[in-house]
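#struct-help
A.M.: can someone run this one for me? Single chain, 90 residues.
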Amino acid sequence: MVRFDEIEPTTMEIGVSIAAIHRGRHLAASLVVAGCLAVAREGLVQAVHARIKSENTASIRAFAAAGFDHVGRHSADGYDVESWRWVTTS
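D.P.: on it. Structure tokens below:
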């Protein structure tokens, strides 16, 4: 599942959840790309942000493979979090 939440008028935060039986099959990057392109085509977004727990290396690899740029690290809700961003090219 890919979910987008608006955080500013043209900026959304993405959330991705892969069912346990499908994890490890390298599906996340493709889902992230498809979701981002869909909301961009609809004119709903110019930038997408992702916050990933630092220890979630599989998600970090997936977002990097999907073309997101690492933009920082911070603490949130007691966790170290990596911040990533994707910007539309159109």
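A.M.: thanks! Residues 2-87 form a domain with the Aminopeptidase fold (CATH 3.40.630.30).
D.P.: also worth noting: The beta strands are 2-8, 11-16, 47-53, 69-76, 79-87.
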